[in-house]
From TrEMBL:
This is Pilin. GO terms for cellular component: pilus. InterPro entries: N_methyl_site, Pilin, Pilin-like. The chain crosses the membrane at residues 27-47.
Amino acid sequence: MFEAFSVSLFRRLVVDLRRARRRPAGFTLIELMIVLAIVGVVAAYAIPAYQDYLARSRVGEGLALASSARLAVADNAASGAGLAGGYSPPAATRNVESVRIDDDTGQISVVFTARVAAAGTNTLVLVPSAPDKADAPTARVALKKGAMQAGAIAWECFAAGKQASSLPAPGAGPLPAEAATLPAKYAPAECRA
């Protein structure tokens, strides 16, 4: 009885193996084409978003390099000296071409390389301002070379498209003397309009 059972089991296995050989293995051409189309659509959206993300992270490097310039302007404004005095600009990097201070106004211009944005559209401007009076301020005024400032300096960032100051009371700050040209999509939120 055991022999009859094992023979019938063996015959069923052989029949199943023959059927398995006849069935096609793998994916059909239409299934592969559908998968490729889905991957293409996802890549069409993901690649530009990733490139924008990379550019925004590179802008962060420029803002970090500008921190020493901000400190130099604040020190010089407190002492009434020329606003760019004693500042040594950092060496150019792969992402940041230059960081420079306007000696008369203390405005800092960060110029990025073509890895961030195309030439001519790659400048971010940081504008300092101080209250007009130390005890009861009514407005924010631009820093001036050789003048002692009345209070704490506030910094405002400008990218392309930002046309007005967004500083809170006691009033809006000054606008940049040099046009900011970095596209807003690459700039931090506080630099956008």
